[in-house]
Design a protein that fits this description.
The structure holds two protein chains of two kinds.
Chain A lengths: L1 E6 L4 H4 L3 E5 L6 H7 L8 E5 L2 E2 L11 E6 L5
Parallel strand pairs in A: 1-5
Antiparallel strand pairs in A: 1-2, 3-4, 3-5
Chain B lengths: L6 E6 L4 E6 L2 H7 L3 H11 L13 E4 L13 E7 L6 E7 L1 H9 L3 E5 L6 E6 L2 E6 L8 H12 L4 E4 L2 H4 L7 E3 L3 E3 L4 H7 L2 E7 L9 H22 L1 H4 L5 H6 L21 H6 L1 E5 L9 E5 L5 E4 L1 H7 L8 H14 L3 H16 L12 H13 L2 H7 L3 H8 L9 E2 L2 E2 L9 H9 L12 H7 L7 H20 L5 H6 L5 H10 L5 H22 L33 H15 L9 H6 L3 H5 L10
Parallel strand pairs in B: 1-6, 7-12
Antiparallel strand pairs in B: 1-2, 3-4, 3-6, 4-5, 7-8, 9-12, 10-11, 13-14, 14-15, 16-17
Helix pairs in contact in B: 1-2, 2-22, 11-13, 12-14, 13-16, 14-15, 19-22, 19-23
The chains are: A alpha+beta, B alpha+beta.
C-alpha cells in the first residue's frame, strides 16, 4: 500500500529525509513505520494520520498521510 | 538578604534625579522578582485611568534572584508598564546583557518615571547615573542605535533601546536588545518613547549577593554544559522554534490569511528546514547553550533573526511564502522596534478588512513590497494609514465598524500569537485567559490536546492543563527570570529551578512555593484589569469571535466543518475560573485573594469595583 510520510523538525536529520512515499506491507503499524525510518525508540514524538494523532499500535492504511514530529511545546 | 541586591534604582527623567531605594525581605519573598516585582510596584504606584503614554506611567526593568548568575539560561529581563495597547498591566521578557549588568550594578529593579525634555540615553554604572543626550540617534533604528552605543562603550555593555516605532508611540512597539531580541509586546517600547528615553546602557562591576557563590558557580556552569549537550542530542536548535511550523500546518493550526485558513500547501517554503538551510549566523541570549536565533539574509541583504512566531505571522498569515521577503518584514520590525506578532496580525487584519469591504485600501494578502511600506508608515505614524496601523487591530476594527472586530485577531487588545485555534479549544482558552492578552508565553497545550485528549473536548482537564502551564511559564520563569526553553524544548528538569533559587538565596523552597507566587501574580494582573475596567466580564476572556463562526469553518483538511462551540467554550472557561478560585466575571474572589495574602491589594480595588466574597 502507498503511504506518504512527512518527518518534522530535527527528526528529519535522524530519518535522512523530510518527505517520502513508501510502499508498505498492509500489516504495518505506526511503530513499525517509525522504527523503519530510523527514529530512535526512546525519542518522544507525536505521529499524526491526516492531521489527527494516532497510537503506536494503530495500523497504517493505504493512502495515509503520516507525519512524525517531535513533541513541540510552543516555545 | 542573599539572592537579592535588595535595591531598586528609581530614576526621574523630568527632574534628572535618581535615588537608590531598598526593599524588604517580605517584599522579596512575596514577589520574588521580575514579573512579581513589576506587577506589585505598578499596582501600588500607578493611579487607575492614567494615560499610558503620559509622564505618569512608569517603565520598569525587573530582574530575578538568578538573573545574571551563570546557570541555564538566565540572561533575561522583564520590562513592564501600563500598556498603551491594552490599557492595563503589560509586560514581556527579553534576552539582554542588561540583566547581568543591572544586577552587578547593585539593583534588582529599575523604575523610570517622568519624561525627559529631549531624547535621552540613561547611563548607569554602579552608583553613577547620567542623563545623556540621544539626539544623534533619535529617529534611527535599533541596529544603528546599538552600533552607536557599542562604538562608545564596547559590546560587553548592557543595552535596552527602542526604534522609530517606540519614538512615534506605535502601540505595539517593543524594547530591543542585542542582535534580534525584543520584549514587551503590549507597547512597552512606546512607553519608553513617550518619555523620550531612547536607550538604557548599564555597566555593573560588583558581585551579585549569593548565599553560596562557589556552589552556585559549580552547579550553574556544570548545568549550562549539560543543557548544551542535551541540545546536541535532541538537535532542537538546528531548527529552533521554526521547526514547529510544519507541525502546525499538518494539524490545521497554522495562521494563514489572517487566520481564515489553518494550513497551506506552500507553507513548507518557510518551514524550519528552509530557515536552517538559509542560515548565515546564529545569535542567542547571554548564558545560553542552545541558541535559538536562526539568522538569514533578507531580500535586501540584511541579517534577519527568525523565530516561529514572526515567520508564521509575517509569512503565511500574510500569504507571503518567499522566505527572504518574510525575513525582510521581520528585519523591518526589529529595526523599527515593532512587535512582529502584533505587526503581522495588524497587517493581516487590514488586508482582511479591505477584502471584506470594511474599509477602502490598496493592501492585499501576498503583497510583500506593500507590507514593507506599511510597516514603515506604522512605525513612523506617517499619514492616515500609518496612524491607523500604529493603533493595533482592535482600535482599527472599532474605527472600521462593519463587525470587523470579530476578525481582529486579538484578546484584550493584544494580538494572538501564531497558533490558529479555529478548532483547538484548549489553546483558545489559553489565549482567552492569558492575563495580559493573547500571548503564547503563558500556556501552550496544543500537543497535549491532540495527543492526550480528544480535540473536541471542552473538559476540565484542558482548564487544568492551562493552569499547570501558566504556573510554570507565566509564573516561575517570569519571576525568577530565566528562559523556559531548556525545560520546555529540551526536557531539562523543572526541579532544577528551585535548586538554583535555593542555592543563591539560602532558602528551602519547593515547586509548590513557586506556584503560590505565580498564582499571586496572576491574581494581581486581574486586579489591575478590574481597576482599569470596572465593567470587566467573562466575555473579556473569549478568543476572537471568528473562531465561533460556522461560516469560517475549513472546507477541507483535518478540521473540515469544525469550529469552536461558544456555549461549550464558556463552560470550559467556567472550569478554569472554578479551579482558579475566580468569580463568574473571571476576577479572583475575596477568599482567593485572602488565601494568597492579598487583602491589602483587594482593599485597593474597592474605590473602583466590587469583589465577590
Amino acid at each position: 500500500m502507498k503511504v506518504q510520510v512527512k518527518v518534522i523538525g530535527p527528526l528529519i536529520y535522524k530519518a535522512g529525509f523530510s518527505e517520502k512515499d513508501f510502499d508498505l506491507d498492509p500489516s504495518t503499524t505506526v511503530n513499525d513505520l517509525v522504527e523503519m525510518i530510523g527514529i530512535p525508540a526512546e525519542r518522544p514524538r507525536i505521529v499524526t494520520r491526516n492531521g489527527k494523532a494516532v497510537l503506536p499500535e494503530d495500523r497504517i492504511e493505504d493512502g495515509d498521510k503520516i507525519a512524525v514530529s517531535p513533541i513541540y511545546s510552543g516555545g | 538578604m542573599n539572592g537579592w541586591t535588595g535595591n531598586i534604582l528609581r530614576v526621574n527623567l523630568s527632574t534628572k534625579t535618581h535615588k537608590k531605594e531598598t526593599f524588604t525581605e517580605e517584599f522579596a519573598h512575596k514577589w520574588v522578582g521580575g514579573r512579581g516585582f513589576a506587577v506589585k510596584t505598578l499596582y501600588d504606584e500607578l493611579k487607575p485611568g492614567i494615560d499610558p503614554l503620559g509622564p505618569e506611567n512608569k517603565f520598569i526593568v525587573a530582574l530575578g534572584p538568578i538573573s545574571g548568575i551563570p546557570a541555564p539560561n538566565t540572561g533575561k529581563a522583564v520590562v513592564a508598564a501600563k500598556s498603551p495597547l491594552t490599557g492595563f498591566y503589560g509586560d514581556g521578557n527579553l534576552g539582554t546583557r542588561a540583566a547581568e549588568h543591572l544586577r552587578k550594578a547593585g539593583y534588582d529593579m529599575l523604575i523610570v518615571e517622568g519624561k525627559a525634555d529631549r531624547p535621552t540615553m540613561l547611563y548607569i554604572e554602579d552608583d553613577k547615573v547620567e542623563f545623556l543626550p540621544a539626539d544623534e540617534v533619535w529617529g534611527k533604528g535599533t541596529y544603528a542605535c546599538n552600533d552607536w552605543i557599542y562604538s562608545k562603550y564596547g559590546k560587553g555593555i548592557g543595552v535596552l533601546n527602542i526604534g522609530q516605532g517606540g519614538e512615534n508611540l506605535n502601540r505595539f512597539a517593543v524594547v530591543r536588545s542585542l542582535e534580534g531580541r525584543a520584549g514587551g509586546r503590549p507597547g512597552i517600547g512606546a512607553v519608553m518613547g513617550s518619555k523620550l528615553l531612547k536607550a538604557i546602557v548599564v555597566k555593573g562591576t560588583r558581585p551579585i549577593p549569593q548565599a553560596d557563590p562557589a556552589a552556585m558557580k559549580a552547579l550553574g556552569s556544570g548545568d549550562l554544559k549539560k543543557v548544551g549537550q542535551i541540545d546536541k542530542q535532541t538537535g532542537w536548535s538546528i531548527q529552533s522554534t521554526t521547526g514547529v511550523l510544519p507541525f502546525c500546518n499538518e494539524v490545521a493550526g497554522l495562521p494563514v490569511r489572517n487566520f481564515r485558513k489553518t494550513h497551506h500547501p506552500l507553507a513548507w517554503q518557510v518551514d524550519g528546514e528552509r530557515c536552517n538551510n538559509a542560515r548565515v549566523a546564529t545569535y542567542g541570549c547571554p548564558t545560553c547553550t542552545m541558541r535559538c536565533g536562526i539568522t538569514v539574509h533578507d531580500k535586501e541583504g540584511h541579517e534577519s533573526e527568525l523565530d516561529y512566531e514572526n515567520v508564521a505571522l509575517l509569512g503565511p498569515n500574510l500569504e507571503i511564502f518567499e522566505l527572504a521577503q518574510m525575513a525582510s518584514l521581520n528585519y523591518l520590525c526589529d529595526e523599527y522596534g515593532l512587535d512582529t506578532m502584533s505587526a503581522g496580525c495588524t497587517l493581516s487584519f487590514y488586508a482582511d478588512a479591505i477584502d471584506h469591504g470594511a474599509v477602502d485600501g490598496d493592501f492585499k494578502f501576498g503583497d510583500a513590497e506593500r507590507a514593507k511600506e506599511l510597516l514603515r508608515l506604522a512605525a513612523l505614524r506617517e499619514g492616515k494609514v500609518g496612524n491607523l496601523l500604529a493603533e493595533g487591530s482592535r482600535r482599527m476594527a472599532r474605527t472600521f465598524g462593519h463587525n470587523s472586530e470579530a476578525y481582529a485577531m486579538q484578546v484584550k487588545g493584544l494580538e494572538v500569537a501564531a497558533y490558529n485555534c479555529k478548532f483547538i479549544p484548549g489553546q483558545a482558552l489559553s489565549f482567552g485567559v492569558a492575563p495580559i492578552g493573547a500571548h503564547h508565553r503563558e500556556a501552550w497545550i496544543i500537543t497535549f490536546e491532540i495527543r492526550h485528549t480528544t480535540r473536541e473536548s471542552y473538559g476540565p482537564e484542558k482548564a487544568a492543563k492551562v493552569i499547570e502551564l501558566q504556573r510554570i511559564r507565566g509564573g516561575l520563569f517570569e519571576f525568577i527570570v530565566s528562559c523556559r526553553f531548556p525545560w520546555i524544548e529540551n526536557g531539562w528538569p523543572l526541579e532544577n529551578y528551585p535548586k538554583y533559587f535555593n542555592v543563591v538565596t539560602g532558602l528551602n523552597w519547593n515547586l509548590d512555593d513557586m506556584w503560590r507566587v505565580g498564582d499571586r501574580i496572576y491574581s494581581m494582573i486581574k486586579l489591575h484589569f478590574l481597576r482599569e475596567f470596572p465593567q470587566a466580564d467573562r466575555e473579556d476572556d473569549y478568543p476572537p469571535r471568528i473562531w465561533f463562526d460556522p461560516s469560517n469553518a475549513d472546507t477541507e483538511g483535518p478540521i473540515a466543518g469544525k469550529y469552536l462551540d461558544l456555549e461549550k467554550y464558556d463552560g470550559m472557561l467556567q472550569h478554569y475560573y472554578d479551579q482558579r478560585g475566580y468569580d463568574r466575571r473571571g476576577i479572583p474572589t475575596k477568599a482567593t485573594l485572602h488565601a494568597l495574602g492579598l487583602d491589602d491589594e483587594a482593599a485597593a480595588v474597592r474605590p473602583y469595583a466590587d469583589l465577590t466574597d
